[in-house]
Every structure is written in C-alpha cells, then in structure tokens.
Amino acid sequence: MNIFYLALEQTIVFLPLVMGIYLSYKILQTTDLTVDGTFVLGAALYARSLSMGVEPLVAVLIALAGGFLGGVMVSLIQFKDKVNSLIASILALFILYSVNFQVMGRANISLQDNRTLIYLFGDQIILFMCLISIGLVVVILSSQLGLKLRGFGANKSLMQKITSNIEKFRMLGLGFSNMLAAFCGVLTAEVNGYADINMGFGMALTGIGSVVIGLDLIRRVYRSRKIFNVGSDILGCFLGGLTYFLSLNTLLRIGIEPINLKLVLGVILVMLLRGVGSSPLNKIGVNRE
Amino acid sequence: MNNAVVDLQNISVLVPLMSREILNDINYRIYSNDFIVVLGSNGSGKSTLINLINQKILPTNGRINYSLSTRKKQYLDIMTLTQKVEESIFPNMSVLENYLLWNYKFNLLGKISSRKLTVNRLKLYLQKINSPLQEKLDTNISCLSGGERQALLLIMCVLLKPKLLLLDEHTSALDPKMAEIVISDTAKYVGKEKIPCMMTTHNIEHALNFGNRLLVLKNGKIVLDLADQEKQKLTKKDLISLYY
C-alpha cells in the first residue's frame, strides 16, 4: 500500500508532463523529445526566480512562459517540415542545455532557503496545480482550437490546403506541450527541493511510454462510444504514469541497484510497448487515434 | 457568353530533365455555368491540367487568369476532389468533425458564425436529399466505405459553395453502382448550385451523358473541344476512335 501511495504522489507530479507528451505525440502526432529540455527549463527558471526573490506564483508563470517559448522554438526549427521532427527536437534539446545552464548559473540550485509554494500553501498545492493543468488540457482539447490541432495531426497536408497556414497550430500545440513539461519541472523542483541541470534525462521517453501504455490500458477497460474523449484519454495518461511509477518503486523495493535501474526500466518499457503494438486493438485499425 | 472564370493562355508544362511536354500550348476558358468533362488516355495531361488550375503546380510557359473573386488568396475558392479520398479526409475523426474542419476557412472569413449553425446546415441538407449519411454523423470517417466517403466529400463541397469545383477521376476507385450514384449526384448538385466544374474521367458513357462541354486531350494537346449540341451528337464510337 505504501508503494501505491508513493507512486500515486509521483504520478500527480508527473501528470502534466505526460499530458504534454500526449498533446504532441497523440494529438499533433509528432515525436517531440524537447520536453527533456523544457522540463529542466521550467525547473531552472522557477528556481532561479525564487532565488532572486520573485514571488512563487509569478515564478511559476515565468517558468510556464519559458516552456511555451521552448515549444515555439522547436516549431520554428521544424517550420514547414524542413527539418524532421525528431532531429528538430534533438537540436532544441542541445540548445536548451546551454540555455538551462545560463538560466541557473550553476548545475544545481537548492530551494531550501526560499519561500516556495509548499512553504506558502502546504502540500496540497501540488495536487491543486495538477488539477489546473488537467483543466487547461480539457479546455484546449474541447475547444475549436483542439479540433484544429487534431486535424493537424490527422492530415497535415489537407489542413494546409484548407487553412493555408498550419504553422500556428504546430506552434501552439508544441508550445502548450512544452509548457506542460515546464510545469511538471516546477512541481518536481518544488517536491524535490532543488533544480538540477540533469533532472530531465529520459523524461520524454518515459512520458511517451506512459502515454502509449496508459491509452492502451484505458481502451481495454472502457470503450467510449465517442471517437475522441478527452476525459478518458487524460485518465489514460494518469494510469500510464501510475503504471510506470508502480514498476519503478517495485523495482527499487526488490533491491535493484539504482545504477541498473534505467536498464531494467528500459527493457520493461520495450516489452510493454511491443505488447501494446501486438494487441488486437491495433489490428482493427479503426477507432484509434 | 459571360466572362471566363478561368482563362488559360498558351500554357505549357515541361518535365525538367526529361524534356517531355506534358501540356503543349493550351488555350482554354472555363465559363461560369460550365460542366466540362475532360477525356484522355493515361499521360495525356488531364491531371496536370487540374493541378495547374488549382495552383498545385506552376506552368513552364504561359499564364492563367482567374476571375473568381476579389479575395487575395484565390485558391481558397477552388476545391478539388480526386480518386484518392484519403487525401481529403481527416482519418479517425467523426464525419461531423471532418465537416467542421472543412468549414474552417469560412469561419475565418466570418461567413458562418457559430458551430451550431454550421452543423444544422449539414443536417438540414442531408435531410433534404435524404442521404443515408444522416445516421452516420458521429461515425468514425475511417469506418465509412470509399463510396460513402466520396459522396460525403461531394456534399461538403457543395455546401461550401466553391467558385470552381475540380474533379479528378473522383469515381475511379468506386464500384460501378456507387460510381453511378456519385456521378449523377455530382451532375445534380453542380447544376443546382451553379458551380462551374471541370471533371476528368475515363468512363466514356459518363463523358457522353454528363456535362455541357467536352474536352479531349492527347499527348498534351487539345484534340477535341465541343459544346452543347455538338457534344450531344457525339457517339461512343467517335470517342473511342480518338484514343487511337
């Protein structure tokens, strides 16, 4: 039960990132690894702002804006599909490493002596912030903009024909996606009590794994009559994150060396993803995003 | 006769490197109440002609004058349907969502104010023509058959009232019965809404039965250009002989 509670806590902190990846991977249908960098950027901007005496809530807003700009940067690299989305995101990641260092000024900032969100509002602020991010995703996806973002993902060239300018959808979509990653960075820094230049390593991968597994899980349990259901998809993101953290904590509990953790988790992710790939739901070919 | 909607002047299209002329010195005008059927063997330049008019490709020589509207981006007013239905739909989205997305450009121009109004227009129209698609608004569009999708796209095109409708073998991938339904629907809608239309086809019967003008291309040149009465006198034999 203890493990479950721990995993639940970690999932709540992690959920904004999973939803961010859901936006880029499932809605826009591009592979965006930039979240590795914008996750750190969010934490870095937040920590640096706090250490400079900025109000915590304002610092959160600064971090969100930074994350959004990170997303805009990738979309500009990808502009008109001149650069492959995967390469573009690795490039952005490369650039962000320096940016993050510049923002932080050093490799690690501790938040212990600052007035943080938890210090001001207590632990429940994390849950509250997570709910806000869920609200944001629900609002975006059920609006006209959400429909157009999905249109962008479903058939880019047709969207281009209809609207003649699809770059703004790429920009907004990746912007929101990376903003959510930065938000997750803020929450993580808040909970851990520090921001670190390397804290983003592997986040995108874990996120994509969570999204794929979570959405597959939810489709096995509950088949919505609607083709697209924001609620069940977000629940799927949550379940995916929970699965990941449950396996992580179980592994730690049974005494896997932390050094080998990524190896074992990687293998587990590969097996899960391959398992999803061969599920009968995939073979029907319809009713899936 | 009234003014030409599209005026093609001395159009040539060359494939670079191969020095093959796909279209050779074409002069042609499309008028506002035309339903033009374009015939020609494979490689005769039919699709190239369509792609020229919808500005997908540029001519090597010559120029095209449009008098479709006063808007700057005139290509917004030309809609094209091809036999590749997949190019014109958003997969894994419902019929209704597809329709809303298709309507997007008109939202921008403020022609249609609300989503509800837009949706009602589709529903009313489907009711009026008693289309079986009425029941399928919330269905995943990927679950519809090819014929249903083409029929739906045609209806959407008509509802969006383009200034020019281009159909590039849009019935080629359909079974004979469905092709018949779609083609007669096409003729009906186009006539009723008075949308100028250019349609390419390989079906000689369709070419004889539909449209008020006929254009036959061969090796990038116009070999036959008939209108109204002359077209009606034409027989199947005459047309087949043009292929040889």
Gap between N and C termini of chain B: 34 Å
The CATH architecture category of chain A equals: Orthogonal Bundle
* SSE arrangement of chain A, N to C: HHHHEHHHHHEHHHH
Q: Give me the count of strands of chain B.
A: 9
CATH class of one domain in chain B: Alpha Beta
Total number of strands of chain A: 2
Strand order of the largest sheet of chain A: 1-2
Helix count of chain B? 9
How is the CATH topology of chain A named? ABC transporter involved in vitamin B12 uptake, BtuC
- Tally of domains of chain A: 1
Summary keywords:
heterodimer; A: 289 residues; mainly alpha; ABC transporter involved in vitamin B12 uptake, BtuC; two-stranded antiparallel sheet; 2% strand; disordered C terminus; B: 244 residues; alpha/beta; Rossmann fold; six-stranded mixed beta sheet; three-stranded antiparallel beta sheet; 9 helices; 26% strand; globular
Describe this entry's structure for a reader.
The complex is a heterodimer of chains A (about 290) and B (about 240). With about 290 residues, chain A is mostly helical. Helix content of chain A is about 75%, strand content about 0%. In chain A, helix 1 crosses helix 11 and helix 10 (about 205-220) crosses helix 12. Chain A is globular, with a radius of gyration of 19 Å. Chain B has a domain at about 5-90 and about 160-240: Rossmann fold (3-Layer(aba) Sandwich). Helices cover about 35% and strands about 25% of the residues of chain B. Chain B has a six-stranded mixed sheet with strand order 5-6-7-3-8-9, with helices on both faces. A three-stranded antiparallel sheet of chain B has the order 2-1-4, with helices on one face. In chain B, helix 5 (about 145-160) packs parallel to helix 6 (about 175-195). The longest helix of chain B has 18 residues, at about 175-195. Chain B is globular. At the A-B interface, helix 7 and helix 8 of A face helix 2 and helix 3 of B.
